[in-house]
Amino acid sequence: MTSSEKKVSIEDVAGETEIDITTPSDAQLDEDEAMLRALRIDLPGTANAPSGIVSISVTDRFPKREFFRCHPDTVAMHLIDHVAGLETEFYAVVPAMLAELASIGIDAMPYKLFELITAEGAVRIIPCRQADIDGSQNEWTRTREIALTRGHKSWVRIISDRANGRYRVFEAPPNRFPDPVFPDLTWGQLVRLAFKDRGRLIDSPNHPLFRKWAGRDGDAA
Amino acid sequence: MQPDKLSAFDEIWSIDTEYRGDSGNPYDVVCIAGVELRSGRRVALWRTELGAAPPFRIDSRSLIVCFAATAELGSFLSLDWPLPAKLLDLSPEYRLLVNGRADARDRRGLLDALQHYGLMAMAKGEKDYWRDMVLRGGPYMDDERTGILNYCLTDADSAAALLSHMLPALDLPRALLRSEFVKVSAIEEYRGIPLDMDVFGHLRDPATWDEIRETLIPGIDTAFNVFEGRVFKRDRFERYLAQNKVPWPRLESGQLDLRDKTFRERAKAFPQIAPLHELRHTLSKMRRIKIQAGADGRARTVLWPFASKTSRTQPKATQYLFGPSCWLRSLLKPRLGTAIAYVDWSAMEFGIAGGLSNDETMREAYDADPYLSTAIAFGHAPAGATKATHGPIRDNFKVVILAAQYGMEAASLAGRLGISTIEANEILLQHRRLYAKYWQWSDAWLHRALSSGQMWTCFGWTRYLDQPESARSIRNWPIQSHGAEILRIAVIWANRYGLRLLGTVHDAILIEAPIDRIDRDVALLQEIMRRASRVVLSAAGQEFALRASATIVRYPRRYSDPRGALMWRIVSEHLATMQRDEGERRATG
Asked: Does A53 fall in a domain?
């Protein structure tokens, strides 16, 4: 409908002239609404914008003195921890590269990755080393996984119990925090943001770190 | 000219009118000129030559182009001409193009637009000369008449030249929608708002108004005791605040923050402050009543659609009945047999935030009572609390919600609520936790705006960030600008169905109808407002709509805003006393 098809007469300003207004049916209003919706231009960033997260960190450090939750979905990957300065960097390894890395004496270890969110909304990925093939697992690692798994259902905080060589887990009082809202990202997207986009996915012998470990970093690429 | 964009039109007329408009009356049209862009036909007619319809086609196959079209459409309405079916107002499109650009600040007139594109424009002095001559009024000599017609034709040529240069960047479907809103604004301007002329007639008399102003201080200050004569005493106000336990923000110097906007914001959380705010505003800003009423007793002013950076309509505050002085709104009185309805969206800014971010918790809170839901979630009110049982906490959480939503600092919130910074910080953190998805969206919006240097609405209104803007302002922009989009859609839609719109007020629409029809019209408007919000706030299969509530005033009652009720009572009582005294004087000869 256009204004010309249903022209409103501008009656005398004192309002003596009656205008006949027919109440539209729901179907008419639905039709109008569809026409108006068709004029929307959903440019990025207007409504229902993506999370805006363009990078995500992978760290073995728990949030200090903060409660956190973990997304119920986890993912298993082989990682290599590489010390760079004072930081430990994690590199993901595609299955096809495991044997090649082993051939140069570098073992990628099985990890379970947890997506963690703090009560203030900080998001990170925490890798948790899995038991060796014989089932043995360091007590720190074992209690870390217990803590992260408990974070699936409760807000928890972790404290290092150095005297006993393990982590201690404290749950927040019930209803202390609302349910967490994780970014709308799949594990595939998370892995891309955390590893691939940052050059931390070893997916070929040409990866700079592989070349370095293989002693080929002086070669022309 | 790009034929593809305008191929739907047989004719494209660039038009301009000259008129005299003052004292709240409809325009006194002097002349009209038009240029048809395809054929080159030119029309320039003096008012004595004008007929019962425009001298050019105005059907849906003819596009009428103007710059700041409320003036041209106001002339159409004053001449009792039908309005064009298809209008393109280049003024909002130019504003959109330069909104926030460093070199375009406050340069948004026709001459600025022409200069922007390097087009020849009439010198400002020459333009002022002819405009002054039009405003001077007749009778005109023959050469003056020819000069005015040529001046009018020159502006029509200018708008035509501007169209050619703007067309490549013009988003025509949305531009036509924006122009339709301009058309409704012109109708609202023309209709005006009915006033109680018995009272207004006295108020606009400078001597009477001066006398009334003198009575306001003793009338209001009885409850506050903060004035000494005509002087507002800071130390007395500080004492009042302490005695009544009203927290008040302070400046860095430690002095109370006495700015008007602080009073306005405080009066929302502490309604007992409202009369003092009204009084201070009236004393400082209203040396004269600047509202103008026509001979028909209706207040009219230029509404200035798209004037703000968020595209909201921005009439001059002192000239609009719904300006900051709430007591003046009691002047609004329906005519015999009619009623007025003030229909506004409930908790609109909170609802828009929930809608745009698709935060389910926010949407659920909106569907209940956003303020109390949040207070309950934060542990400041028990489950089951209502407006009746926890009114003050609800009022406080109105402040909390808006403050937190736009990223207010803990220290500022602490000052407003009269709590410690640590407590305020905890409230802000709770907001981030409870409405985590909103914060993810808001953070992403801020990041995108700063990295791209621009932000936009889902109907294309754009703001460039050539100059630094605060993070709070950037976070607030999408809420306000999408609010403006919702309002525009509702107004356009309501007008298409013939509802008698009188004006808009931020998040409200004012309509008039015969008493026996007002309930039906309000119901239709509320449905349109609900759907308009759904058009803007629903995307990707997520449906969400805002609700609207109405205040209906039937003749002989008048509109009243609670914030201005006391002031209005004092003014009315004083006027009654004056009239009684005058009557007695006459009776005694």
From this structure: no
Calculate ∠ Cα B532-B335-B519, nearest 5°. 40
Pick the CATH number of B11-191 from 3.30.420.10, 3.10.20.600, 3.90.850.10, 3.40.50.1580: 3.30.420.10
Q: Domain boundaries in chain B?
A: 11-191, 192-302+563-589
Write out the two tokens for A120.
């203030």
Per-residue tokens: B8: 């739907």
Which one-letter amino acid corresponds to residue B172?
L
By residue range, what is the domain housing residue A110? 68-213
- Tell me whether B589 touches chain A (CB under 8 Å): no
Among the partner residues B445, B520, B535, nearest to A23 by beta-carbon distance: B520
- B107: distance to nearest CA of chain A, Å? 27
Is residue A193 in a domain?
yes
Task: Please name which of B489, B533, B491, B528 lies closest in space to residue B367, comparing C-alpha atoms.
Answer: B533
10 Å Cβ neighbour count for B212?
20
Q: Say what the ipTM of the complex is.
A: 0.86
Write out chain B's pLDDT in tens, 589 residues.
Answer: 555 789 999 999 999 999 997 778 888 999 999 999 999 999 999 999 999 999 999 999 999 999 999 999 999 999 999 999 999 999 999 999 999 987 766 677 888 999 889 898 788 888 889 989 998 888 899 999 999 999 999 999 999 999 999 999 999 999 999 999 999 999 999 999 999 999 999 998 988 888 888 888 888 999 899 999 888 999 999 999 999 988 888 888 888 999 988 888 888 778 888 899 989 988 888 778 889 999 999 999 999 999 999 999 999 988 899 987 889 999 999 999 999 999 999 999 999 999 998 898 999 999 999 999 999 988 889 999 998 999 888 888 888 888 898 888 888 888 777 788 899 999 998 998 899 889 888 888 887 788 778 899 999 999 999 888 898 999 999 999 999 999 999 999 999 999 999 999 989 999 999 999 999 999 999 999 999 999 999 876 688 999 999 999 999 999 999 888 888 998 898 888 888 888 888 888 6
Contact criterion met (CB below 8 Å) for A2 and B85: yes
* Cα–Cα dist B204/B290, whole Å: 8
Shortest alpha-carbon distance between residue A41 and chain B (Å): 5
Domain count, chain A: 1
A89 located within any domain: yes
Amino acid in the structure at residue B366: Y
A55 vs B: CB within 8 A: no
